[in-house]
Amino acid sequence: MVIPVCFIYDKNFIMPTSVAITSMLENRNEDTFYDIFLIGVDCEDADLSCLEAFRNEKNVDIHFRNADMSAYASISQVSHVSQASLVKFNLPQLVTEYDKLLYIDGDVLIMQDLTEFFMEDLTGYYLGGPQNTVDIVRGKGQFLTGAYVYDSKKMIEDDIPQKLIDYRVSLGNRKSMDNTTFNEYLGAGFKKMPIKFDLPIRKLVYERMYYKLADLNAFYGTNYRSHKEVVEDAVVIHFDGAAKPWKYSCFLYDDVWLEYYKKSPCKDMPLKRKSYWDYLGEQVEKSGIKGIYYVFKDWVRESLGVFRSVHYVEGDWN
């Protein structure tokens, strides 16, 4: 089975993308051939040896492409989400070899073969991926943006890449680089898929205070018996949010990410991972006393058993 898989990276995501690819190759089926397309943003002078190394792997082909960012010149980065995420809009124009593409963020671990994900039927849709877990409470019908299946042929035929670009430019500067545009513009053109194809592990941990496992099962049509089982069933584990596993060593699955890092071509690149106490200090520096409040309030609420009465905070989700 040949599966075209696309990753988008900038200079800060070369190493994480290398780790993601390492996990993908470690956990594939013997008969799976990954045709990998690596789309670089402002990386013309970067050291790509950590990515070039995969050329030596069996049943793998690697293609390097450079993305032209001129269409996004008016958009500035105002959060941890890089401008490189904008390239998701015109990915079908950059990779024209296939009518269907799989895209995955670089801040992930790929824990199972991707054949099932890629083979999802997209008839009548432009994109497919899991619905956002926050919708279990919020119910707005938004989708996660860490892993997609693209119907590239249909998108190009309907000029969707350019329409997405134009819509995003019209939104101006905001925290969300790609999420809001995909959700607001495509809407019904986005197919709902199982949560295991893009499991946001940080959200899964945090959101347990707002809904029960039974609510998650009802929402996704699953039968998980524990949160551990949700994680173990994941095809793609997405380290959503700003606390990335190459920056911190104190959150769920950071240790598993480290094991794949040690197997990757980037294993000799030094890491400076921070502890939980470093994280707390950053919250204080960033938000003062409020930073400590936001970190510890959930522990207090858990002890009081009032999670279910707490309103889920609205935000510009990425």
From TrEMBL:
The answer on whether this UniProt entry bears the keyword Transferase reads: yes
Keyword Lipoprotein carried by entry = no
Key words of the record: Glycosyltransferase, Metal-binding, Transferase
**Any single Pfam family the record assigns to this protein:** Glyco_transf_8
Q: Name one GO molecular function term.
A: glycosyltransferase activity
Tell me the domain of life. Answer: Bacteria
The cross-references to InterPro entries, in alphabetical order and at most eight, read: Glyco_trans_8 (IPR002495), Glycosyltrans_8_dom-fam (IPR050748), Nucleotide-diphossugar_trans (IPR029044)
Q: Could you identify this protein by its name?
A: Glycosyl transferase GT8 family
